[in-house]
Amino acid sequence: MINQRRNTHPNPTSSKSFKLKVLASAILLGAGTQLLPVGPALAESDEAILEANAPGTSADPFEAALEPGDFIWQPELAETGQIHAYVDLGAQLVTVYRGNTRIGVSTISSGMEGYETPTGVFEILQKKVEHYSNLYNDAPMPYMQRLTWDGIAFHVGKLPGEAASHGCIRLPEEFAVKFFEATEMGAPVEIVGTTGSPDVTLAANETREMPLTPRQQTAALNKAAASGTFEVAMTE
Known about the structure:
Elements: H1 16-30, H2 44-52, E1 71-73, E2 83-88, E3 93-98, E4 101-107, E5 120-123, E6 126-128, E7 144-146, E8 153-156, E9 169-171, H3 173-182, E10 188-192, H4 214-227
Parallel strand pairs: 2-10, 8-9
Antiparallel strand pairs: 1-4, 2-3, 3-4, 5-10, 6-7, 7-8
């Protein structure tokens, strides 16, 4: 036998509040806002839609606070242009750009005290889906993207919410795969800041020009020196 619960509530369509909700829904629909189901209570998803359409609410996903392991990846924001990355050690974030447009941001874990991740402009020197450390007991470094020949690289790793690596930049696995697939050899990577000391002046912006890689910087200096437009300092 199926126990049926009788409806002891009054008809919601006859109430004044129901008519007001219908009127509000009609106004929202006329403004191009998604129409919500009307009833005694809104579902959580409906409340989220209302919040998203509230005046003054930012729809920029990159403004969201990220917990360790979180990331945002929206490559559709820019379909052309070279990939480059901006690593903020103070904020423990990496921001990825295609051309000058931000398409992704992820939490990271960089080098801990005594093993600080170096700052400066680097380029991706090597890429390997499967790689193991020859310095730390063959520790796995999946989706490795090398930045220096002495061991600094992006790779999948644990993200405890603080700098905890031996110098490498650890990434969430899913983000590491997407980032790996998007980059090309020689892609510029700019690393700034000081671990444990967030600096708002270094925060990544929505747009950013791609920096010159070390190789490009050297080529530019050599060209300037050869043309006589740049004076090379000489020691005795």
